[in-house]
Design goal:
It contains 12 helices and 15 strands. It is globular and about 60 Å long. Strand 1, helix 1 and strand 2 form a beta-alpha-beta unit. The protein has 3 domains: about 90 residues, Rossmann fold, CATH 3.40.50.20; about 70 residues, ATP-grasp fold, A domain (Dna Ligase, domain 1); about 140 residues, D-amino Acid Aminotransferase, Chain A, domain 1. By secondary structure, the chain is α+β, with helices and mostly antiparallel strands. The longest helix is centred in the C-terminal third of the chain and has 22 residues. The protein has a 4-stranded parallel sheet with strand order 3-2-1-4, with helices on both faces. A 4-stranded antiparallel sheet has the order 5-8-6-7, sandwiched between helices. The chain has a 4-stranded antiparallel sheet with strand order 10-9-13-14, sandwiched between helices. The structure holds adenosine monophosphate (AMP) and glycine.
């Protein structure tokens, strides 16, 4: 059994490490930017090793991998993929169960993702335009009656998108925000995407892709607004749940199949455009609207916290799936226990604005709320 390398150190990566280590033959090596004691303990137990370094440096990660005779790697966070860590590992002959920099462009360049889907007639996109010119952006906002989502093309840690009726009062504020974005470059990308504002319920569909076929995981709904009753600002995620049947109370099997079919067509489009397979996790953020299932965005990694929901009930061997993924042939659809899951975050006072840090943490059972669930998965602190 080759040594396995995980790059990353969040609660999501702990869930990945836990799932991989259910295979007792795996030796877990982890390259982290800060010590995650959960990952470190799994690594120790499996007779692997951990190192702390710059996870966004392809050279540093590749050097660690080479010196520890890594046979299979999983670089996890979006910025690590965008930095080209998979490419550096592959260049050393180390297979990676995660997308290359080119493939993860589906996430780090929102213009690219929308254009790919448009050019290959993949359904599910809202009306959109891509702009680097202020006046044209403003006219497009007017043409949509000011009801828009304004997005920088590049990565912003999930906090750059603003939508009329939420973070933007009206079309005037949308125009102001689009001008502001055009004056800064996010992750070096100058353009912005303006989309028709969609209304509906959001859901997450994560899938394993071997380049030919996508295999969906149970649907998860992520709750991003802070405070009880979802009345606070958007955050990276406050909690999430999944249902025992793999669907959600508001999503039928037909809706789920429609979302998975958009993802299947997208990996086929990527192959047609580049001649290369999309290998790794593909995660679609979708919205069920009155005109059907629409794609909000792609992520080229597990969701955070959605990974914790799906991986805690994965009954197949995750290491085995990764191995088949890099061989471009997942032979059996991965299986999941028929259980509901809930993930609830406890966050510092002041989050997501100015978090009060380095405080002792005191909580009791009531801090977890009145949730009745199969298992409280993790406290993301
Ligand atoms: P994204 O980073 O593209 O996932 O956008 C962040 C959040 O903005 C999403 O989770 C949605 O809540 C919202 N959003 C993005 N695009 C749209 C849209 N076209 N219509 C309505 N809401 C959107
Ligand atoms: N749960 C949102 C994300 O992982 O981007």
């Amino acid at each position: 059994m080759p040594n396995f390398l995980l790059v990353g150190n969040g609660a999501r990566e702990h869930a990945i490490a836990e799932a991989v280590c259910r295979n007792p033959a795996v030796r877990l090596f982890a390259f982290m930017s800060a010590n995650n004691p959960g990952i470190a303990s799994l690594s120790k137990k499996s007779k692997g090793e951990v190192a702390i370094g710059n996870i966004h440096s392809p050279e540093e990660v590749a050097r660690f991998a080479k010196s520890h005779k890594i046979g299979l790697a999983f670089p996890s966070p979006d910025a690590v993929l965008a930095a080209g860590v998979s490419d550096a590992l592959i260049a050393q002959g180390i297979p990676c169960a995660a997308p290359t920099k080119e493939a993860s462009r589906l996430e780090w360049d929102k213009s690219y993702a929308r254009e790919l889907l448009r050019d290959f007639r993949v359904p599910g996109s809202p009306k959109f335009g891509i702009f680097d010119n202020e006046q044209e952006a403003h006219s497009f906002i007017d043409s949509l009656g000011g009801q828009v989502a304004v997005k920088p093309s590049g990565l912003t840690g999930g906090k750059g998108v603003k939508v009329t009726g939420f973070q933007l009062k009206d079309g005037i504020e949308a125009k102001k925000y689009s001008s502001e974005l055009l004056s800064i470059r996010h992750s070096g990308l100058a353009s912005i995407v303006i989309e028709e504002k969609l209304d509906g319920e959001e859901f997450s569909l994560q899938a394993f892709s071997d380049g030919k076929k996508v295999f969906g995981m149970p649907l998860v709904q992520d709750h991003k607004r802070a405070y009880e009753g979802d009345i606070g600002p958007n955050t990276g995620g406050m909690g999430s749940y999944s249902d025992a049947n793999g669907l959600l109370p508001f999503i039928s099997k037909e809706h789920r199949d429609a979302a998975l079919s958009i993802m299947q067509k997208s990996i086929e489009a990527f192959r047609k455009k580049t001649g290369k397979p999309y290998l790794g996790i593909l995660y679609g953020g979708f919205m069920l609207t009155s005109s059907g299932v629409k794609l909000i965005e792609y992520n080229c990694r597990f969701g955070d916290p959605e990974a914790m929901n799906a991986l805690s009930i994965l009954t197949s061997d995750l290491y085995g799936i990764f191995e088949q993924m890099v061989q471009e042939n997942i032979t059996h659809a991965p299986t999941f226990a028929k259980k509901a899951t809930v993930c609830k975050y406890l966050v510092p006072e002041g989050y997501p604005g100015k978090s009060i840090t380095d405080q002792p943490l005191a909580f009791n059972q009531s801090a977890l709320g009145k949730i009745r669930c199969a298992r409280v998965l993790r406290l993301g602190l």
